[in-house]
């Protein structure tokens, strides 16, 4: 039972981390696009 809890917590943490990095990547891409548009204009 304890073993299951630990692996479950690790799984949840990993998922949250992936979601955070995914959002960060989207944000960086948006910033990059904005800068590119500004350079073109």
In a nutshell, what does this entry contain?
The chain is mainly α and 41 residues long. It has one helix at residues 2-40.
Descriptive report:
Helix content is 95%, strand content 0%. The chain contains 1 helix and no strands. It has one helix spanning 2-40. The protein is rod-shaped, with a radius of gyration of 18 Å.
Index terms:
41 residues, mainly alpha, 95% helix, rod-shaped
Number of helices: 1
- What share of the residues does DSSP label as strand, in percent? under 5%
- Give the proportion of residues in helices: over 70%
Shape: rod-shaped
Distance between the termini: 60 Å
Number of beta strands: 0
Poorly predicted runs are none
Mean pLDDT: 85
Q: Evaluate the radius of gyration.
A: 18 Å
